[in-house]
Structures
1.
Amino acid sequence: MIKRELAKDEKLKNESWDRFLPSFRKRHAKRVKKKIEKKKEYTPFPPAQTPRKIDLLIESGEYFLSEKEKKSSAIAKKKEMQSIQTSKKQLERSKSFIAPKESTVGAAPRPCVGKDSLSLADLKKKFSV
């Protein structure tokens, strides 16, 4: 359609039409690499069946407990978890009260007092030179 319109125009008949025609980028489709899967070893026996919830309860002995005993054990577990969490929280809160370590970097050096210290007269001689 664009080429027909350009062919009709007397001024643009003999010129290059590249500036009027749309240019499309050539896109190459990326090939998907196939992953080679290793074949599993054939076993004629199916895997062992996973135990049901009831089986696990019977093994642990919880299946035979009364309702009161189940509730009391659940409450005991809950309290134990709460005590663990509260101790963790207390440690976090107490960290803010610990004084930070004082760094010696950037601190002004203290004047030495003792055998190696210079007298006032010696200091005057040193700076007067």
2.
Amino acid sequence: MEKKFGPLMDNLEYQLAAAFHPRFRLMWLEKCNPDIVPRVRLAMEDALVDALGDSAAEGNSMEPSIQVEEADPFMAELFQPSGSSGRSRMTSRDSQRSRRSKAQGLLVTWLNGVTMPDFSNETFLHETALIGLFVKYNTPIVA
């Protein structure tokens, strides 16, 4: 491995490309360089948190807006848009924690799953964030 791939083995982008590939995941790295597995795993988790956030933002933009009569202050505050009160900052933090928690669970399931040579939705646990990360890190860009 060292002779053939040499310095490429230290590149985080390449490590993530293999880690998000359903055939390799982290198994190759555990055998070749187990010392950096925690760093790559954390990078995977961070990438997954970001991808889940992007998925949530796309999903939220598709939801219809809720109209609330201004005569009911309780309901108006309940459906107040994000970013307009101190309470929404807490919601944003909770959302980040929730995405982190989901990413951790998804990552454990992904890494403990059976390696598969195909690229079906089932292979990626039917999770668009995992599919997106596979594509992001494994698609070459030609100039």
